[in-house]
Amino acid sequence: INECLENTHDCDKNATCSNTEGSFNCSCKNGYRGNGTSCKVTNCSVLSCGQNKECVQVNNISICVCKDGYEEPDCRSKRKKDFDLVDVDECTATPPKCAGAGQRCIIFPGAYRCNCISPRQQLNDDESACIDVAASIQGSIAISNREYKPGNGSVGVDFIVTFNDTIGVNDINLQQEFLNALNITNNGTFLVDSNLQVTKETDPIFQGS
Fold first, then answer.
1. What fold, for 85-133?
2. 137 vs 55: which has the higher pLDDT
C-alpha cells in the first residue's frame, strides 16, 4: 500500500511524504522544522546553512541559498537545504575572463584574478591588457683591480647582470638603472664602455665593463 498516494499518512501539510516498503516517512519541507508529522516555520536565527550558504526570507519562509560566487549543481525554484555547493570557475566561463593578449586567469575560492604570463609585463590600470615594464636590474657589481688614475679619479668595475628575458633591455635603459642605483658623490660621473651589449646565453645576460 502506498500511503502517500492514497493520502492515508499523517504527515504535516508542510511535510513531504516518502513511500517505503510497508510504511512511509515524513520530512519537513525546506523552511520548516519538526519531526514530519508536526512542522513549524523556521527563521534565520535558528537555521544553520553551513559553509558557502546564507539564509534568506522568501514569502516569510527561511531558506538557505548560495552566496555570491557559488552556484547549486541544480538550480530550481524549490531549493533543497542539503545540496552540495561548487565553486564557480570564472576562468572557463563564457565570455572568458582575462582574455587580453598575454594574460592568464588564476582561480581562487569564490573569485579569480588576472595576471600576465611574462614576468616582464604587468596589467594596465583597467586590467584590460599586459604592458611592458621598465627594465629592472638584479645582480651585483664587483670592483675590479684596475689602475687608479690620479688625474681623473676613476674606478673601473666589471659587471654581469642576469635577466629572465632580454626583451626591451638595451644599453640605454641599463645605464639609467645603474645611475639610479649607484651612490655617486662629489659630482662624479658614471661612464659605460661603448661595447656594452646583450649576449644570449643559456640564461640571457648583460655583460660589460
1. Laminin (2.10.25)
2. 55
